[in-house]
Amino acid sequence: MEAKQTVYVNTFTDGVLDPGKAMEYKVKDGGHIIANTTPGCWGPMITPALKGGHEVTKPVYVEGAEAGDAVVIHIQTIEVTSTATASGNDQPVKGRFTGDPFVDGKCPNCGTKNPDTYIEGIGQQAIRCRICGEDVTPFVFTNAYTMAFDEQKELGLTLPREAAEKVAHDAKHYMQTPEESIQNPVVTFAPHDLVGAVARLRPFLGQLGTTPSRPIPDSHNAGDFGQFLIDAPHDFGLTADELEERTDGHMDINRVREGAVIICPVKVEGGGVYVGDMHAMQGNGEIAGHTTDVSGIVTLKVDVLKGVNLEGPVLLPVEEDLPYLAKPFSEKEKQQALKLAEKWQVEQLEDSYPVSFIGTGADLNAATENGLERAARAFGIDVPEVMNRSTITGSIDVGRHPGVVTVTFLTPVHYLEKIKIDTLVKDHYKR
């Protein structure tokens, strides 16, 4: 397969990131990926034929990327195409899955595993087994809403019953579901528990990363949701050690947005870059478990870093999103620091730039420990030093509850040189 300067991706996985499947797209080192992404969580969650809780793009082979390298992904543009969506808290439905409602849905009547479905009417009983006609959705809402966006995609408004039902009757139109997607649009449920709430849009990518070295359901490609796979009774069950083969592409960190850069570990030949689960907005933590999943158009630029063996993703947020203590110093601040150094006879000041290490784990404590350890091993320093630096020049921030965090701190340039990202980081923050 010949690598292209730009690849256009509009096909999707069945919910599983499988390194054993041949990659259908190949992009040059330094090339671009343009993708039409499907909505994330809720649509796939009510489509039991999907086996991962999401419906991400098929992975892209990046020319020159080998295991032990890293792929730099520049998020150049994110455009929301949906004009409405729906979301809310979830509740699994007993009898409609075997061990994990995200992965192994089944029909409670005929017993078909991961059954194909069709939509009959609207509401939470509308998803039906194609074989026997039974209600098969593995999840229902506890408290939920339908939200419409303005034409500028700057604001969202939650809708009353009549408006929500209007959206539900023309679901794929309002969701702008891509043609190759098989998910059932979540607006079909027409939820309307919240009415008249106004929210600002700030779209970002809940899924962005590289393919793990073993088959993993896409929404479980992280240290928190991945816990559901440990000793699971379905085809994708694994051990705690095998979970370390994940690449943490499912981050739900709201700073993974237009203008940011994410540096991803490569664990299979070609890297296998995939994207999806675009959200219209989300506060830190995604505490409701879900937010406003939307369709969209994404433009990414990818570069290979040879021999940069990372344990997990490293994020370079846009400067506006950095914690106050981690923002690059202004010229005025640098002059102040020089005067202070002269007063106290400090011969050399650190030249430093902000970096965020992603940590994931079973809970926020485990995720924090994971992020601290990843940073320490990357730079060849000890964890207490990372703790000190992230305390006085950075922050620990929740990406997703229960177990995704960012460990951010101002990092000396000579540390960045160790993992060959010094020029990348300098250019990003001088831009």
List strands and helices in order, with pairings.
Elements: E1 4-9, E2 16-17, E3 25-37, H1 42-45, E4 60-62, E5 70-80, E6 84-92, E7 117-119, E8 127-129, E9 139-149, E10 155-158, H2 161-169, H3 171-175, E11 198-200, E12 204-209, E13 216-217, E14 261-265, E15 271-279, E16 296-305, E17 314-316, H4 331-343, E18 352-360, H5 364-379, H6 383-392, E19 394-400, E20 404-412, H7 413-418, H8 422-430
Parallel strand pairs: 1-3, 3-4
Antiparallel strand pairs: 2-13, 3-16, 4-15, 5-14, 5-16, 6-9, 7-8, 9-10, 10-11, 12-15, 14-17, 17-18, 18-20, 19-20
Helix pairs in contact: 5-6
InterPro entries: FmdA_AmdA
GO molecular function, one term: hydrolase activity, acting on carbon-nitrogen (but not peptide) bonds, in linear amides
Protein name: Acetamidase
